[in-house]
Structure formats: structure tokens, C-alpha cells
Specification:
43% of the residues are buried. Helix content is 48%, strand content 12%. The longest helix has 26 residues. Among the domains are: 92 residues, Arginyl tRNA synthetase N-terminal domain (Gyrase A, domain 2), CATH 3.30.1360.70; 145 residues, Orthogonal Bundle (Isoleucyl-tRNA Synthetase, Domain 1); 75 residues, no CATH class. It is α/β, with parallel strands linked by helices. It binds one RNA strand through α2, β10, α15 and α19.
Length: 581
RNA sequence: GCGCCCGUAGCUCAGUGGAUAGAGCGUUCGCCUCCGGAGCGAAAGGUCAGAGGUUCGAAUCCUCUCGGGCGCGCCA
């Protein structure tokens, strides 16, 4: 249960009663009434703004309306205390029984706790990584990969029906260059001296096995084929080998997408014509001449009429070309078709995860999706900022395998998938991230992964000790514990924090911001460690009290609650909780 | 020149209309015979880049200015 929503709903019910009774107008818009946590915990557990938001329309003073609502809430079982404060806040303190019920809810749901039906089964399509199949994934791709994967998990937990997708850019000039590189590497594999890889081709060592594979498939017959045939064979082989290796790298990071869509197949299936016909039928395609771009004008700029999409009708800065000068589709045109395909078959809402360097492309794609669907917010593009890889504060550069960047694989091999995934989410997606290979594996408090894992492991340790001392640690036994034994303010505070997990999931899903989960887990871990440390000074607060069975059972229930919530959160991030460290 | 993102404590960053703006690191001062060691507790520290505006209420929304990053037809 999202308890904020719960108390807000109670207030809304009372408002409806008051409306029916004629005390307030019946046509109030209740959607702006929300619940938050009061700044000062002494003000209660939940603060409602309903009275302040509705006062004007209700033609009442905010505090008077608040008092009216408050007086009706006071009798509710879940509520201990209601106060009207400040400009008209309704501050609610929940009853002890309410918090006990939350802990029982956590124990009975285990790591399923936090799931919500907010999404109501709505289909969301999330596309991420989508790196060109022209080389290995680097850490920047890794960030998008982890972000997309975690966001997908957040959305699933919030009740959305999610499709995870990868778009393979296997058409266009880049893969032609890849094919040429593969052919050169094939000559090398046949024993020819090829010298340094010419500028413009892909220099990385990872193309050597592609050349070798071409030779083992075709031998020197490869070079007796027509140029076109050679190119096609080389391109097909190179793309399939690159994609295999990309899939391997993703799998090593624990990322498994549901669908891999190919740009080439979209063009070949005629989807571009279909999507553009739709735009044309709406009068959004025309022949025209574009102004040269301001600032630096390309040297080979040539004014000519071209086929344009009226992106400016939907908030873009200029209309965008759909055809290149050689008559083939621009990348944008096939991308329109791809998004048309997704929105027609694989999701009512689309999310694209891109690198920040593609920011300039957002408006035109949003414009196209808007034109195709008639909906303004059918597409949300999330941009991930740069990752800098450091080692003890020193910038790390160069990689033998890729030619320039640290690869995702190298990082996974060095620090492990769990560390990679967690650290990638310790920054908001649009903030740059420093990834320090040395610090992220430190076993100290300033390493967030360790800190959270340590909390979970400590909990597991307590349960092991309890078991040795003859207690049952099983949740199904612990639900019978007398939870009123949990009376210390830090124990109660921890329960409240655990109980806010469902709200975190909903907020993260709403905002498309999985990092909120990582931040929440650090908070939950901190609260647990704090309670633990309190037991160092005050032995009566330790979890296991051999002389007090009831207190121990209640505290074990709390420990199981911490385990459930941390495991639930780590699970969403794709990180395996540690039972020992 | 234009567009997008960012500007919050000494540093790295949370906080997408609510009350006295938070955390970690660093600094200062105490504690450390510990269920699990990889420390604990407390304090100091702020013109939320700046200026206007919107309203009961703004770090948050709008406009402008300054500063940083990214991008700007036939690359994807």
C-alpha cells in the first residue's frame, strides 16, 4: 500500500461526504489534492494540502476547510492524531496499529512488496542501448543499458506491461564501412600484408575475427565474387558477429531485451513508405528548400529542394529532410517508420533512452510521433549523460579492444555486474557520472553498493544468530509476533521508511527515474545501520534478547522487513542481494 | 547565431508547487572491552547562479541575464 495515497483518499472521501451534505460545492476538482511528508517529523506522518488547494473554489478559508475535514478524519482507526497547521495543512499521525499492519504486509509479501497497479497493465515500449553494430559497447552504452533495464523493471513493478527493445542500425553508410573493414581483415586473414587500417575504417582489433570467419566460410572465393556480392556477404557476417558480441556483453551485465528490431528490415518491409504515407495524408510532407544552418555553414552546402516533414507544426525549429540527395531515406525517415511500428504494435507509450549527444534529435522525433499519434506525450526521450572512467581519481583512457573507449565488458569483468548496475544509478540520468573502478569496490561506508549490501548481509547474519539461539526466523512465524514491542523511535522510524517503498516505486515510475530506487536503498540501509549502532551503546536495543522472547520476535520481524525491502529494491535494479560479505 | 540539458553546503550530488532546503565526503569536537570487523555520535557549514513574474506558498512553473556541457542538411 502507498500510505500517502491511502490517507489522501480518506480525505477525499470526507470531501465527497461534505459535498453530498451540501457543506461544500460538489463540483470541486480534487485532482490537485496530494499527500506529502511533513518537513518536521513532529508534524506527523502525512501532510495533506487538500484544504489549501480547494479553499478558493469552496469559497472557504483554507484553515476552516481543513478543520472541517480534520474533524471527520479523527475517528478513523488508522489515525492517531489530526492537526491543522500553518496555512491549512492537515497533518496526520497514523496509529501504531497502522504501522504494525504495514510491517505485516511487508512480511507477507516478501520481495514482492512495493508492487503497484498504477500502470493498470498499460503497454509501455522502452528502447535502449541501440548502439551501432560497428564495435563493442563502451561504458557510455553501459549507462544507457543499465538505466533502460532498471526503468523497465520499475515500470513492471508499477504495473505496466513493458516491452524492452533494441534497435539495430544495420542500414546506411556506417555498416558499409564496417563491411569494407571486414573485407580488409579477410585479406589479412589470407596472409596479405594490409598495413595500418586506413582512416575512415574501423581500426579496432575486434574486426580481426570477422575477417577470419569470412575466410573460413568462403576462402579466397570471397574475392572472386562481384563487389556487390562481397559487400553483402561481409556486411551480413560483420553485423551478425557484432550483434552476437554485443548481446554477450549485455548478458554479462545482466541485460536481456525482448526484441531486437532491424532498421534494414523496416526499410525492406516498406514500413517507411507506409509511415510517410500517413504523414502525407495529413498534409505534413512537402517539397521545399531549407535555409542553411546558422553558425558554421557546411563547406559543401548546396541549396536544393528536398522532401521535408513539417516538424515545425509540432514544436521543432525547422522542417526536417526525409530523403538524401541520392534518393535514399534519411536516418530520420526510417526512424519515423520505426517509431510508427512501435506505437502501432508494441506499446501505447514509448520511451527512448539515448546518449546526451543525441539531444539535438529529440524534437524532431517527438514531433513525428506527435504527428503520427495525435498525442503530445506518447514519447518520452531520456538522455543519459557522459560517464568518465577513473581509477583512484585518475582518468582512464584507451582500450586495446575498442580503439578508443573503455568497453562495457572490461568494466563488468573488473568490478562485476552488481557494482556496475548500482553505481550507474547513483546519479540522475541527465547528470554526468564519474565511475571510479577502484572506489566502487571499496569495502567502506562511502561506497554506496557496499553500504546497501552490507545492511542486507548484516540482517541475514542476525537471522542466523537468532536461529542458533533457538528462534524461528521464518516470516510466516514472525507475523504472530507482538509488534507493539517495537517502541524505540528508531525502530518505528525504520518501519515508516520501509512502508514508503511502494510510493518510491510509483514516483520512480511516474518520473521515469530509476535512480530514485538506488537513493532510497541507501536511505533504508542508513536507517538500519543507525539502529544497529544504537544497540552497540544500549544493549537492550539489540535485536536478539535471549531473556526477552517477545521483543526478539518483534525485532526479527523488523529485520525480515528490512531484508524484504532491500531485496525488493535491489531486485528492481538487477542487483543480487548479498547474504554474506 | 539558434535549440536542448545543467548551475543547490568547501567537494560530489539528492530534492519536478508545500512549512525551518537534505545526504555522503571533507572540516571541528567527543567516543571505540563491537549481535558482523571493514568504526560510532555530534557540531559547524546556504543570496538554491542573478533579476523580475505567476499564487495562499517557488530550489521546483514562466521571462530575461550570466556561467558550463551537448548539438545544429546529404552521420547514425
Amino acid at each position: 500500500m502507498n500510505y500517502f495515497e491511502h490517507f489522501n483518499n480518506l480525505a477525499l472521501q470526507e470531501l465527497e461526504f461534505l459535498a453530498k451534505n451540501g457543506d461544500i460545492p460538489s463540483d470541486l476538482n480534487l485532482s490537485r489534492a496530494t499527500a506529502g511528508s511533513p518537513r518536521d517529523p513532529n508534524h506527523g506522518d502525512v501532510a495533506l494540502n487538500a484544504a489549501m488547494v480547494l479553499a478558493k473554489d469552496a469559497r472557504m478559508k483554507p484553515r476552516d476547510l481543513a478543520e472541517l475535514i480534520a474533524s471527520r478524519l479523527r475517528s478513523h482507526d488508522d489515525i492517531e492524531l489530526v492537526e491543522v497547521a500553518g496555512p491549512g495543512f492537515i497533518n496526520i499521525q497514523a496509529s501504531p496499529g497502522f504501522w504494525s499492519a504495514r510491517l505485516l504486509e511487508i512480511l507477507s509479501l516478501g520481495r514482492e512488496y512495493g508492487a503497484s497497479n498504477m500502470g493498470a497493465g498499460r503497454r509501455v515500449n522502452i528502447e535502449y542501448v541501440s548502439a551501432n553494430p560497428t564495435g563493442p559497447l563502451h561504458v557510455g552504452h553501459g549507462r544507457g543499458a543499465v538505466f533502460g533495464d532498471a526503468l523497465a523493471a520499475v515500470l513492471r513493478k508499477a504495473g505496466f506491461d513493458v516491452v524492452k527493445e533494441y534497435y539495430i542500425n544495420d542500414a546506411g553508410a556506417q555498416v558499409d564501412i564496417l563491411a569494407q573493414t571486414a573485407l580488409l581483415r579477410a585479406r589479412e586473414a589470407l596472409g596479405e600484408e594490409i598495413g595500418p587500417i586506413p582512416d575512415g575504417l574501423y581500426p579496432g582489433d575486434y574486426m580481426i575475427p570477422v575477417g577470419e570467419a569470412l575466410v573460413s566460410d568462403h576462402g579466397d572465393a570471397l574475392f572472386r565474387m562481384s563487389d556487390q556480392e562481397q559487400n553483402e556477404v561481409a556486411r551480413g557476417k560483420a553485423i551478425s558477429m557484432m550483434m552476437d558480441s554485443i548481446r554477450d556483453d549485455l548478458a554479462a551485465a545482466g541485460i536481456n531485451q525482448d526484441i531486437f528490431s532491424s532498421e534494414r528490415s523496416i526499410v525492406e518491409a516498406g514500413s517507411v513508405d507506409a509511415a510517410l504515407a500517413t504523414l502525407e495524408s495529413k498534409g505534413l510532407v512537402y517539397e521545399g528548400i531549407l535555409e542553411p544552418p546558422k553558425g558554421k555553414i557546411p563547406e559543401d552546402w548546396e541549396e536544393r529542394p528536398q522532401t521535408l516533414f513539417r516538424a515545425t507544426n509540432f514544436g521543432d525549429d525547422v522542417d526536417r529532410p526525409l530523403k538524401k540527395s541520392d534518393g535514399s531515406w534519411t536516418y530520420f525517415a526510417t526512424d519515423i517508420a520505426y517509431h510508427f511500428d512501435k506505437i502501432s504494435h508494441r506499446g501505447e507509450e514509448l520511451i527512448d533512452v539515448w546518449g546526451a549527444d543525441h539531444g539535438g534529435y529529440v524534437k524532431r522525433v517527438s514531433a513525428a510521433v506527435q504527428a503520427l499519434t495525435g498525442k503530445k506525450d506518447a514519447l518520452d526521450v531520456k538522455l543519459c549523460q557522459l560517464v568518465r572512467v577513473l581509477r583512484d581519481g585518475e582518468l582512464v583512457r584507451m582500450s586495446k579492444r575498442s580503439g578508443d573507449f573503455i568497453t562495457l565488458r572490461e568494466v563488468v569483468d573488473e568490478v562485476g555486474r552488481d557494482v556496475l548496475r548500482f553505481i550507474m544509478l547513483t546519479r540522475k540520468n541527465d547528470a554526468p557520472l564519474d565511475f571510479d573502478l577502484a572506489r566502487v569496490v571499496n569495502q567502506s561506508k562511502d561506497n554506496p553498493v557496499f553500504y546497501v549490501q552490507y545492511a542486507h548481509a548484516r540482517c541475514c547474519s542476525v537471522l542466523r544468530h537468532a536461529k542458533d539461539a533457538g528462534f524461528s526466523e521464518r516470516p510466516e512465524d514472525l507475523i504472530h509476533a507482538d509488534l507493539t514491542q517495537l517502541a524505540d523511535e528508531d525502530e518505528i522510524g525504520l518501519i515508516k521508511l520501509l512502508a514508503s517503498w511502494p510510493r518510491i516505486i510509483e514516483q520512480a515510475a511516474e518520473a521515469h527515474e530509476p535512480h530514485r530506487v538506488a537513493f532510497y536503498l541507501q536511505e533504508a540501509a542508513a536507517a538500519f545501520h543507525q539502529l544497529w549502532n544504537k544497540g552497540r551503546d544500549d544493549t537492550t536495543l539489540r535485536f536478539i534478547q535471549t531473556s526477552d522472547q517477545e521483543a526478539t520476535k518483534a525485532r526479527l520481524a523488523l529485520v525480515q522487513g528490512v531484508i524484504a525491502v532491500i531485496a525488493s529494491g535491489l531486485n528492481v535494479l538487477g542487483v543480487q542481494p548479498a547474504e554474506e560479505m
